[in-house]
Records
---
Amino acid sequence: DIHMTQSPSSLSASVGDRVTMTCRASQSVRNYLYWYQQKPGNAPKLLIYVASYLESGVPSRFSGSGSGTDFTLTISNLQPDDFATYYCQQAYSGPPTFGGGTKVEIK
Amino acid sequence: EVQLLESGGGLVQPGGSLRLSCAASGFTFSYYDMTWVRQIPGRGLESVSVISASGSNAYYADSVKGRFTISRDNSRNMVHLQMSSLRVEDTAVYYCANSKGGYDSWSGYSDYWGQGTLLTVSS
C-alpha cells in the first residue's frame, strides 16, 4: 500500500494568514492526489482534485500543487470557515490511502 | 441534489454481525463505483471496500478481507456492507461515498459522501 504522510499534524494560524501544508507519498502517485476538508461531525469535502484543480464551488483561496511524491495545499487569506482538518488521498494504486491529516486551529 | 444516506450502524458485541446500507439519490448511481470509508473517532480515514459500477468486482482492505462483503442493488440505488466477525478495532464512523477517477481499478476519489453511521463494537 502507498503510505501518505502529512505535515505538520497541526498548525495555529490567524484569519488572513497564508497557510501551507504538505503531503508526501511513499512512492510516486503521479498527479492522482486529492485534498479534502473535514469539520467535526461532518463528512470530508473534496477541495482539490488531480493535485491542482479546484473543485466546483471551492473558494479560489485554496490551491494545490505538486506531482510524483510531494504535494502542497495552500490557503491564502485564511478565513474563519477554513478552520478544519485537511486530508490528502492518493488514487493511483489501490487501496486508496489517506494521510493522517493537518488540523488548522485558531491562533 | 445528491444524497447518500447510510443506515444500520449501532452497538454490537465482538464476534457479531451487522449490515450497513446506503441509499443514493440525485445522481446516476449505476454509473459509479461505490466505496465505504471508515474513520475511528478523532482519527484518520481508511478505505474499507470498493465495488465496481456493475457490481462484478469488489476490493477489500486487508484489515477486513474475509469478514466484510460489499454488494449493491442498482435497481434500488443501494449499496450494502455486510460485516461479520466484528472486532473492537472495527469501531468507527462508516461513510458511503462514490469512487471515481482512479488510475487503477480500485483506487478512486470521492466527491459525494454520506453523513456517516457509527458502528461500535463492544462487550
---
Amino acid sequence: KQEVTQIPAALSVPEGENLVLNCSFTDSAIYNLQWFRQDPGKGLTSLLLIQSSQREQTSGRLNASLDKSSGRSTLYIAASQPGDSATYLCAAFSSGSARQLTFGSGTQLTVLP
Amino acid sequence: GAGVSQSPSNKVTEKGKDVELRCDPISGHTALYWYRQSLGQGLEFLIYFQGNSAPDKSGLPSDRFSAERTGGSVSTLTIQRTQQEDSAVYLCASHVVRGTEAFFGQGTRLTVV
C-alpha cells in the first residue's frame, strides 16, 4: 500500500526566501506525482504534475523534482511571497491496481511580510 | 464548465438523516473521483468512475456510502443514516482520463450534529 509523507509539517519563512518542501513515497510504481496548494476552507489547486518518466517540472517560481528510485519529490519555491502562504500537498498516482491519488498530510507554509 | 463544481458548499444535517452531495466535473473529463478530508485523517480516496466502466468502490468506508454517475457526467455521493464521524470535507476531482492531471472542486463541508 502506497504511503506518502511530507516534511516538515509546518514552515515559517520571511518574505523573499527560497524554500524546499519535501515529499517521500514508499512505492516507486507510480504513474505520476502531483503537487497541490490548498487555501483555508478551499479546494485543491493543481500546481505541477510530474510524469513518472520526467525528472522535473517548472512553472514560474515553482520547480518540482522527482526521483522515483529514492521515492522522493521536492517542491522548490523561489523568492517566496506572503501570497504563497497555504498548505502544500503532494500526491502520488499509483500505477498498480489501486489507481488513485495517495496524499501526504501536507506542509503548512507561512511567509511573513 | 470552467471547473469542477460541487454543491452544496456547506451542509449541516442531523444524525441519522440521509444527505446527497453533487459533483459536476469539467466537460469532457471521463474520470471522476471522490475523496474525503477530515481532521487528523488527511485526504482519503472513496470511489472513482472511469467512463462506462464499473466504478471502483474500494475506498467507501461503509455500506451507508454510495455514489452514482449519470450519463458519464454529474455524480452524486449519498450518505445514508449519517453519523458524527461522517463530518468532513468531501472533495470531487475530475481527470481527462485516469492518470492525467487532477482538477478539484471546492468541496462540500458536511457537519453532522
